[in-house]
Amino acid sequence: MPSTRIRSAVRLLVIDSVDRVLLFHATTATGPADGMWFCPGGGVEADESDREAAARELREETGLVVEPDAFEGPVWNRRHLLERNEDVLDQREQFFVYRAPNIPTIQAVGDPWSLRDGRQIYRWWSRGDLKAGPEDAAVFAPRSLPDLIPDVLVGLWDGPPIDVGV
User: Fold this and answer.
1) Measured between alpha carbons, how far is 61 from 38 in angstroms, rounded to an integer?
2) Could you read off the pLDDT of 70-113 as tens digits, one per residue?
3) Beta-carbon neighbour count of residue 52 at 10 Å?
4) Alpha-carbon distance 37 to 26, whole Å?
5) d(C-alpha 81, C-alpha 33), whole Å
6) How far apart are CA 123 and CA 25, in angstroms?
7) Which of 64, 104, 131, 155 is deepest in the core (most CB within 10 A)?
């Protein structure tokens, strides 16, 4: 019988000074054209708050050192089930916003998602880039990212988190 594990996670909408969003690329087993573009982030450790996890994940995946109180949000919630072998991972994500005061240099410290063959696979996406979509068959995570991001870009978030689906 399959087991289900619940995992709390955080994601970061890193926005640079010209309103572009940082996304990482991951490939699937079938190849790079079937991959996805996603926000940096990861699991919340037992001894940390969501904001502390966001700061740690941002540092691990981008090299950016930011205090936990520098984040807006959470702005979005996302829940999805990942089936692995006979087990199910029930991942529950909260998305925070970090507005960088410039165009940061990204330096992965040790996250496997951001390094491929010794180079980082990331991209800064403008609103127009998001609307046009990836040049290959890759998808965004969350899928509705291009439609959701304009509301975040207009200014400081002051509403409750929005459920963004898969």
Assistant:
1) 12
2) 999 999 999 988 787 888 888 899 999 999 998 888 876 555 55
3) 15
4) 7
5) 22
6) 8
7) 64
DSSP 64-107: ----GGG-EEEEEEEEEEEEETTEEEEEEEEEEEEE-SS-PPP-
- Encoded tokens for 22: 């940082």
pTM: 0.88
> Is the distance from CB of 29 to CB of 133 less than 8 angstroms?
no
With contact defined as beta carbons under 8 Å apart, do 162 and 75 qualify? yes
User: Can you tell me which residue has the tokens 């006979």?
Assistant: 86
**What kind and span of H or E run contains 132?**
helix 127-132
Tokens 């529950």: give the residue. Answer: 92
Q: Where do we find the tokens 């050192």?
A: 65
